[in-house]
Amino acid sequence: MDPTKIVVIQPGSSYLRIGLASDLGPMYIPNIIAWKKKGKHPHPIGDNTATQSESTEFIANRMEGINEIKDSLEFFKQGVQQPPTKGKKGMNAEEDYDVMTVQPVTVPADPRTDAREWTDVSHNQPVLVGEEVLKLDEKSQKMYEIYRPFRHGYINHVAGRSLRVTCFDIQTIWEYGLTKKLGPVPRKIDDDDDSFFRPNFRGAVVSNKPQPPRDLSGYFAVLVIPDLFKKEDVKELISILLRDMRFRAAFVHLESVCATFGAGLTTALVVDIGDTKTSISCVEEGISLPLTRIHMNYGGEQIGKFLLWLLNREDAKYATEPESIVNKFPFTHSACSPSTYLSDERLLISLRENLCHLNFTDTRPKNYSFKVQYNKGDSCQLHSMQASDALLFAPMSLLHPRVYFPLETTTVKLVDEEDYLEELIAGEIAKAKMTDPETTKQPETPDSRTPIPLDAAILKSVAAVERVELRRRLVSSIILTGGVSLTLGLINILEERLINTLPVDQDSIEKVEVLLPPTRKDIDPRFLGWRGGSVAASLESAREMWILRQEWVEGPALSILKERLPFHWW
Fold it and tell me: Which residues is 284 bridged to in the sheet?
């Protein structure tokens, strides 16, 4: 199969990875869309949950988590030669500090150094996608309804918006990426082809695609999905590819298996730490073991919000008394609300990616300056800050997730009503199958409101493997993928933590190793799943697993999925 005719798609909560199988890497497109407002309506950006205030119980729970982080940091610092730090006597010293700031200074914008590329909305565009949305200034942002169609790896069901409308958002973003990659080539529109029309957020149908993508009937699509997938999500995404976008055929595989192939392995323990979710799965010879799959609703976004909370506190002791809580973070615009303002969101991501680390040989305070410009033509504000412990505390929260604000819940239904009805009609459900516990054994879906520490979740996943020899292979071949996997020092601290938390009955495990990212310059750890998707689709065993467009349109979906998917359809 010609790799220049295979489009590999891996949708994430914050970014879409899309490109041809022949490419060295995918396009990395912000998974966000903005529709022109028609009246006064709210403009949610990220989650669709109401803002919650910090209760006394939650603050107490967070403080306990912070104390655990302090203890862990002291443990990991033992034996590490610390460079002398002027004015800092230790984490628990009375003179301890964490954030020092100076008052912001307003300076004229220098077009040579401060020039920002803003999205021009003077053409009254009905829809914006990706970077076009992130480059909206605050005045222009108020003109659009902004949505993220994915949340925690699943389709984001925003209150007041139908699933059909959200699927149109997804299709529009995908076609935007394909248009950038393949170029806009007009195609013949069949009489029954309604894919050029999009409903607005109130349900009225409007045309908004002056440049349709090229005819995709000669292209094949590879879709990379979460290991703990939602059946209804998978069906909708396949329908977008085959029914609406009219690909010739589609191949679907799990992200852990694809990440393993992308790293050049067939057996590994895959840990994917994304922006709003962390998933873990054990892969043996190209097969994801169902009972080892774990999905948790925290990632880079929660680390960033915790970092902001830390920077807003007085010092590294973070006392709970209200009088000791002061705003020491220099950037106070709109209370720095990343869930409301795109400028705040981008600032917080920049702080997290550029400053947070787990390098215990460098705990000296770091100086950081940044300029903020809210609207085109405004003056810039120059902000400066100095931080130390907060930069370690924030990523350490992966091992102590109780410090996160109460997490959103995600329900993964293991029984799909549509599948169940089709099985009843086909007469495939027998009484023995309904009552036999062995045939109904399914992956565990933990309560996402009770976050599991990353190291404990890894050990829990490995513990679901019965064979000791396979356990040894898995813990010595741990793959980190996702954007947070790039955090400096994360590999070392995770290895140390796993070694020290292995149960005593696991003494047969002699080695724990988190594999370094591939050294080839053409492979980014964030793109292992995408790269592996093209590898999986090119295997000889995948030839019979492509779902053709015509057979998907004619159905039934259940029998097709059971026959063609390279993993079990629970």
Answer: 287
CB atoms < 10 A from the CB of 516, how many? Answer: 10
- Residue owning tokens 């990343």: 338
Confirm if 167 and 236 have CB atoms less than 8 A apart: yes
3-state SS assignment for residue 159: coil
Query: Which of 293, 323, 346 minimizes the C-alpha distance to 461?
Result: 293
User: 427-466 burial by CB neighbour count: b if 16+ within 10 A, else e?
Assistant: eeeeeeeeeeeeeeeebeeeebeebbbbbbbbbbbbebbe
Q: Count Cβ atoms below 10 Å from residue 503 Cβ, excluding itself.
A: 9
Q: Both tokens of residue 286?
A: 């190209």
Close Cβ partners of 374 (under 8 Å, ≥ 6 residues apart): 137, 138, 333, 343
Q: Which long-range contacts (CB under 8 A, 24 or more apart) does 555-563 make?
A: 556/422, 557/235, 557/418, 557/422, 558/418, 558/419, 558/422, 558/423, 558/426, 559/422, 559/426, 561/234, 561/235
Q: Among 306, 323, 324, which residue's Cα sits nearest to residue 315?
A: 324
Distances from the Cα of 207 to the Cα of 41, 128, 130, 166, angstroms: 21, 14, 19, 16
Q: Quick one: angle between helices 342-355 and 300-311, nearest 10? A: 90
Q: What is the number of other CB atoms lying within 10 angstroms of the CB of residue 400?
A: 23
Token pair, residue 56, equals: 């006394």
Q: What is the pLDDT of residues 374-424, one digit of tens each?
A: 777 777 777 777 777 888 889 999 999 988 866 666 555 555 556 555 555
Nearest-CA neighbor of 272 among 285, 257, 287? 257
Residue (of 570, 102, 156) closest to 367 by Cα position: 102
- Position 189 scores a pLDDT of 41
Query: Inter-axis angle of helices 300-311 and 389-396, to 10 degrees?
Result: 150
pLDDT tens digit sequence for 217-276: 999 999 999 999 999 999 999 999 999 999 999 999 999 999 999 999 999 999 999 999
Q: How far apart are CA 171 and CA 238, in angstroms?
A: 11
d(CA 374, CA 377): 9
- pTM, two decimals, is 0.82
| Amino acid identity for residue 49 in this structure | T
Average pLDDT taken over every residue of the chain: 77
Distance CA 524, CA 527 (A): 5
